[in-house]
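Appendix B. Raw example, untouched.
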Amino acid sequence: MARLFLEPHLPAWLDARWYSNKHEAMAMGPGAQIGWFDLYDKPALCALIANADDMRWYNTLLAGLDGLPLRELHARGLLVTNGAGINAVTMAEYVLMGMLTIAKGYRAIVRAQDRHEWLPEPPGRAELAGSRALILGYGGIGKLVAEQLTALQVEVTVVRRQGALTGRVLGPDQWRPVLGGFDWVILAVPATPQTERMIGAAELAAMKPGAVLLNVARGVVVDTDALVESLRTRHLGAAFLDVTDPEPLPADHPLWSLDNCHITMHMSGRSQTRMFERASQRFLDNLNRFRAGQPLAYQVDLEQGY
């Protein structure tokens, strides 16, 4: 798909090789200085990266690099650029969809229509305006979510690792004591050893009764068993999960049967038509920087993992 947007604009100095399957990519890897290859099969993708032993720059559509050999990439001195922010628009829209769906009880409205039943009362009466949201992760997705919620008169507090800290900007060690003050907790953090199961039983218990957890990050940032228990006891009002742990979620998993759990099967980043267009333009811009020896945009800190 990216070839449609790349091929007419590639510079003459670049010898481009195109592949249609992982076997062709494996054969083309040796000798390539620049690589852009993506597979859902992480072990196969790791093998492709290892096989490209002359590669100096690896580009990927992936935003989260969990499952890739970051230590090995760092040891090889590779430049790595990722897809951070490419899917921010559609993922932020999914967050808004989840919040409005839960606030207005839209699931019950759809089911009533399926039954041809005219509801006498609205199933949801909550308003976003005037509510309070905490966003953990202030990259491209978190920033766009914050902008859109602010426009809807939601009071937004964000958690970030760097930058000035104010009343509505918290550091990574400041958010847990104030969890109980928010109606919405939105997870948009990268998957790293530091964020794995950052939302566990203690954090869920500290959340405001009836609050909603929304996860568009990675399933592993939440302790699934603790989440199931919090939803079963109704301490959490609801959860909106674009990602789960495990994933795909087994058909007999208890999350499927909880009426206050909304699962969107990791579709948020793919619910669009412009991903390859955006990614191709980013790659072309970085080609010019690479040729000129300039720093690449969206370069990954391989020690931090994002």
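End of appendix B.
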